[in-house]
Design goal:
Number of domains: 3
Radius of gyration: 28 Å
Strand order of the largest sheet: 1-2-3-4
Distance between the termini: 71 Å
Largest sheet: 4 strands, antiparallel
Structural class: mainly alpha
Oligomer: single chain
């Protein structure tokens, strides 16, 4: 019987000389012993391409790949707003895998962030700046080429919109507000134009629309209101206004809007997307007192303008939002600054919570979309405020009112559904084995809450910490449950 030679996988390693001689190489460095022992010259080792490396990585230098990895690990996390991280945590990363415009924009943004965050020598700082400028230019070039193609493919349109959002954030990093506004306005105009043509439901379309709203909020907080009003390059031509009060009022509304974003972030941190509400003893972040003082100042000035003849629905809405967040920050600071902070202290502020419900009901009325006000901004602010009230207020009727408001403004919104489902489950956890309407004891209350919507499966993950005495507190004692959104 004929003997067959055993099959072995072909070896692709070894020095060049041994490969030519079809000899097994011991791969010694700097020269293999097969060559040196026979007096031959070892020609060294050729670099074997790593098939695990994606094709879009092969044209990048080591420095560029490092910045792309930094963008994945750090930049996207910091850019994620607490309403969702599906845009920065998933969609952008998917686009980086094969879209040059998004990839170059990501590298530019990463390089700019490194330049700001790290203490560097002047030479390194200049190198990072050049890298950011180079890839920003490449991204805009690719974006222009994509727009010229007039491709009707949905993926192509999403690439253009994602690139616009990243370039807007990059311009905000560089404090170039004019460029940021150009990218933001152009991108959103394209989004509205394409959304009117493509009416089919799309998860990516919802994520991109939410991202545009978030970037608009970031932009509003970065803009100096007076420069914004006086810079005619940023605003379309309009008739001159003889009434000074109207100009001051518009200035006031924009600054108030920016302060509300800061106040919302102070009350609810967002380390990795979703909501995160801390225990009663946790102090506010730095600047909490200043934010509260400014909120009160702007609220008082808005009331002054209203008393002098400004009775539009827009001004009443802004007043209601300012008062809503002033109440919340006031309650949070009062409990955190008390001698013995505890969840039970929130019971003393029932009238504050009831007032907050009245304000939220006014802001979530059915005709709110007809009001020429920043509705896309007001509604998320109110939903965030209702979540905080639903977690911290243990009054049964007030919680029922909060759930009724959230169910009324759902309209198939995954974020509102996640908030509603989480509050309902939280009530079940805290009221287990407790009679309806009875006070909830301190030991049954939840101190910390973290809510993360899972958009792929339309579910929400609720993580929480129960009450723990200070003497035996375990910061890692989290419980978790995943639920389908309603």
């Amino acid at each position: 019987m004929e003997r067959k030679r055993l099959k072995h996988p072909k070896v692709r390693t070894g020095c060049i000389t041994c490969k030519c001689r079809h000899k097994k190489c011991d791969e010694a460095i700097p020269a293999c012993r097969n060559c040196t022992s026979t007096g031959r010259k070892c020609d060294g080792y050729a670099q074997v391409p790593d098939k695990r490396t994606r094709s879009w990585h092969q044209g990048l230098s080591w420095k560029e790949r490092w910045h792309l990895d930094f963008f994945r690990r750090c930049t996207t996390v910091q850019c994620a707003e607490y309403f969702q991280d599906a845009f920065w945590g998933r969609l952008v990363l998917q686009m980086c895998d094969g879209q040059p415009a998004v990839q170059h924009a990501a590298i530019a943004m990463s390089a700019r962030q490194c330049q700001f965050e790290e203490v560097q020598t002047k030479q390194v700082e200049d190198r990072e700046s050049v890298l950011a400028l180079s890839h920003s230019h490449k991204s805009i070039t690719c974006l222009g080429a994509d727009l010229v193609r007039h491709d009707s493919n949905r993926a192509h349109k999403e690439t253009v919109l994602v690139s616009c959002i990243i370039l807007t954030m990059l311009a905000l990093f560089q404090q170039d507000l004019f460029t940021a506004r150009c990218h933001l306005q152009s991108g959103y105009n394209l989004f509205k134009e394409w959304a009117a043509i493509d009416t089919k439901p799309s998860l990516h379309k919802d994520i991109i629309e939410q991202a545009f709203s978030q970037v608009q909020i970031h932009y509003s907080t970065c803009v100096n209101p007076r420069e914004f009003l006086n810079n005619h390059r940023l605003l379309p031509p309009r008739p001159p206004q003889s009434d000074k009060t109207a100009t001051h009022d518009a200035d006031l509304v924009r600054e108030s809007r920016g302060l509300l974003v800061i106040g919302r972030q102070i009350v609810q941190s967002h380390p990795g997307g979703g909501f995160s509400i801390s225990r009663a003893s946790s102090p506010l972040n730095r600047g909490g007192i200043a934010v509260l003082s400014k909120l009160r100042l702007w609220r008082s000035q808005l009331k002054f303008f209203e008393s002098n003849g400004l009775h539009s629905q827009r001004h009443r809405d802004m007043l209601a939002v300012l008062e809503l967040w002033t109440l919340i920050i006031d309650v949070k600071m009062s409990v955190a600054d008390s001698q013995e902070p505890s969840e039970a202290l929130y019971d003393d502020y029932l009238t504050y919570f009831q007032r907050a419900i009245l304000l939220a009901r006014e802001l979530l009325r059915p005709d709110a979309s007809e009001v020429p006000a920043p509705v896309c901004y007001i509604k998320p602010s109110v939903v965030a405020a209702l979540l905080w009230c639903g977690v911290k207020c243990r009054d049964w009727k007030t919680r029922d009112d909060i759930l009724a408001l959230l169910r009324g403004c759902n309209h198939h919104s995954p974020w509102v559904s996640a908030v509603t489902t989480s509050i309902e489950r939280l009530i079940q956890i805290e009221s287990y084995d407790i009679a309806q309407g009875a006070p909830i004891p301190e030991a049954a209350r939840v101190e910390c809450v973290s809510i993360g919507p899972l958009l792929d499966s339309f579910e929400v993950q609720l993580r929480y910490q129960r009450f723990q005495p200070e003497s035996c507190r375990d910061e890692d004692a989290w419980e978790s449950v995943t639920m389908p959104c309603q």
